[in-house]
Each structure stands twice: as structure tokens, then as C-alpha cells.
Amino acid sequence: MAESSGCRGVLVELIAHAGGVALIVSAQDCVERDGARASAQPAITRLAEAVWRTEWPRFDAVHATVYRYAELPGQERAYGQVLTRAELERRWGARPIGLDQEVADLPGASLFPWILLPVSMLVGLSLAVWTGVAAARTGAIWIVFRRW
């Protein structure tokens, strides 16, 4: 995705929050065609454009961050910018419908907690029953319920 636009060490995360869904994208740095490190703002623009033109679940904003840029050679300092969906549409036009997926449409996105919860409850209950049976066989249950 962003590596093809000249950015290295790219990390992308999708975060759902009360205000909507944000796509968090960060890069170690971006380089120009001549191999020189890109400036901060053009690097942010490249990252945002790359995620705008790539298939992702529908998002409302892009939080783009680059850590190394031409303005601070030899240093590492985060430079970030938040771009709303309206700003992205204004810059690069409407996002093709085929690139957007609903977050709930992701495979296993909404089923995982509903599968994990009953399984963990079953394991916990089985462990409690097994511990009770083992304690009863050794006579330890008498100590647990003994009246003082």
C-alpha cells in the first residue's frame, strides 16, 4: 500500500470510537524519487492518499503520522495530521464504493466475542467442577464446608 508510494515502515490500524471509525497510519519515513528523505507535509499527503486509494473498511478520518522527515535530519520526531473524510474527498475525489466495506462485514469482526465468551465460561465452569470433584475425592471438601 504505502510502501509503493515511497514510504517505509508503514503501520495501519483501524479504530472504532464514539465519533466513527478512524484509520491510523504511520510511517518511519518517506523518500523522494531521488532517494532523499521527503518533507513532513508531502509525506503526510502521500500516506493519506495511499490509504484513500486502497481497500479498507469505511472510515471517517485518517490520522497520518511520519517520524523522520527532511526538516529534522538525523532526528526522530512525530509529525501528524488528522484529515476528515470531507477533506480527503475534496483533495482526491469521492472514494470508489468498491473500496469501502462496512466494519461489521469484516470476517469474524463481530462474531469473535460471542464465540469467545461462551467458550471461556464453559472452560471456567469445567475447571470449577473438576476442582470440586478432586477435592471431594481427597476429603478436602469437608474442610471447606466445616462449621466453626
Radius of gyration: 26 Å
Q: Could you give the distance between the termini? A: 69 Å
Assembly form of the protein: single chain
Helix content: 25-40%
Total helix count? 4
Number of domains: 2
Number of strands: 7
Features:
5-stranded mixed sheet, 7 strands, 4 helices, alpha/beta
Q: Could you describe the 3D structure shown?
A:
- Strands 1, 2, 3, 5 and 6 form a five-stranded mixed β-sheet that branches. The protein has a two-stranded parallel sheet with strand order 4-7.
- The chain is about 35% helix and about 25% strand.
- The chain folds into two domains: about 1-100, no CATH class; about 110-145.
- It has helices at about 40-50, 85-90, 110-140, 140-145; strands at about 5-10, 10-15, 20-30, 55, 60-70, 80-85, 100.
- The mean pLDDT is about 80.
- The radius of gyration is 26 Å and the shape is elongated.
- It is built from four helices and seven strands, in the order βββαβββαβαα.
- It is an alpha/beta fold and about 150 residues long.
Mind sketching the topology for me?
Elements: E1 7-8, E2 11-17, E3 20-30, H1 40-52, E4 56-57, E5 61-68, E6 79-84, H2 85-92, E7 100-101, H3 112-138, H4 140-144
Parallel strand pairs: 3-5, 4-7
Antiparallel strand pairs: 1-3, 2-3, 5-6
